[in-house]
Amino acid sequence: xxxxxxxxxxxxxxxxxxxxxxxxxxxxxxxxxxxxxxxxxxxxxxxxxxxxxxxxxxxxxxxxxxxxxxxxxxxxxxxxxxxxxxxxxxxxxxxxxxxxxxxxxxxxxxxxxxxxxxxxxxxxxxxxxxxxxxxxxxxxxxxxxxxx
Amino acid sequence: xxxxxxxxxxxxxxxxxxxxxxxxxxxxxxxxxxxxxxxxxxxxxxxxxxxxxxxxxxxxxxxxxxxxxxxxxxxxxxxxxxxxxxxxxxxxxxxxxxxxxxxxxxxxxxxxxxxxxxxxxxxxxxxxxxxxxxxxxxxxxxxxxxxxxxxxxxxxxxxxxxxxxxxxxxxxxxxxxxxxxxxxxxxxxxxxxxxxxxxxxxxxxxxxxxxxxxxxxxxxxxxxxxxxxxxxxxxxxxxxxxxxxxxxxxxxxxxxxxxxxxxxxxxxxxxxxxxxxxxxxxxxxxxxxxxxxxxxxxxxxxxxxxxxxxxxxxxxxxxxxxxxxxxxxxxxxxxxxxxxxxxxxxxxxxxxxxxxxxxxxxxxxxxxxxxxxxxxxxxxxxxxxxxxxxxxxxxxxxxxxxxxxxxxxxxxxxxxxxxxxxxx
Lengths: 148, 424
Description:
Chain A has helices spanning about 25-35, 75-80, 100-110, 125-130; strands at about 1-5, 5-10, 15-20, 25, 60-65, 65-70, 90, 120, 135-140, 145. By secondary structure, chain A is α/β, with parallel strands linked by helices. In chain A, strand 7, helix 3 (about 100-110) and strand 8 form a beta-alpha-beta unit.
């Protein structure tokens, strides 16, 4: 078990199984199936993402460096939250990018009954340590606990 | 965040609960990036990235409806990214059925919302809103609340306006409340370059390829490019602006660049020169071999890499008037050399409705039509962004289209050879 401390972008608590992307997450490509084709598990549809392609993101602790791609990224994330197809939490090793921050904040401010804690600045060591399938707990103060 | 009395009053709900939530959203967004104040949006017009009535984006339209019902419409009129549908663009029966009845079934509804929110005029749909013909061209120093990445990087770099690389929805929020958080590319410090790019090619580098190389190297950083004025000159004329439009879109999509400086050419570089380069900046040297390496490393994700192309898209971002004219000359010359009368691959040149209207008034329009090239206002990205189109072997010289879809990139010369002579 190991603890990491990050910065809280959207507060909340969550416990979920990790899915890890070591590359930037292309939000629109990744959530396309969830939004357009009724995939409630939000299976990652980004063929260029070798870590995540074909894996379920809904309800998982999504660990990543940053998001990349189209500036529609924030609204795509907002829609995924609104449709309850969002990850249980999003955990960024780097400082969050403007697109993911927009999505997280829009969901936080405008959606009732939707929780997606978001923590950033967890450090490179976090992304090196965490592996798919590990259990992750997020606290209100941005403490992230990874259980082997 | 330190707010003015007026901003605090809005946050406190004195102008309604909905506008308070808009302000709260922007404040939270700014605080993530260390903003200490909100500054007025000063551009005459806004520009929105969300142009498509995609059935899947119901939550976005519900949010827009909240703004409209509360009377919180845009303080500026705005243009918006290109429409996703145009009957002029070749599509088979199944594609047409799915586009109209499934994917973009809410297009009319959403366009009605845009009208209520402050659309400039009914055909103000383009990613190149800054073209003279469109009329949404910010002035140097204007503060913007835009989100379309290719337009943001152009406005910042070529026009000297100030805008962060915002997400969709945040663009309309800044315009509705009239303020944006002050951070990043709005600040003098945030506009300093942390990369020095040295161009050492033996010929004019392909705009889309050079932008891709720089974007992938510097990601979200600001690059200062030295040596490109040798090929572009020192005047921001139509040809240079067209080049920078395509170059910038590639830096923004292959990386996440929101601002670049071109030595002796772009406004801040002309004023400040290499003083814009921050201490400790990294260096990236680009020569012919480096561009070739970048090009060769693009993955080909066609199921059959040897498939004959079924469609060619040019104009992502939308083409300029200068580009439509020069490509008319090039296609005619290519066809003449090949002994063909019409293009051998269905080819679509995309541009804004206003640019297309201006083009139609020139003698080039009939000449281009005679070559078989179709002109359209469509967004090629929206056309491609579905499994049916994704399986089509489509070629393009747009590195943005390559990055976001299955379209395959070729240089301008290679595209010209393919559409006029054929072959892979």
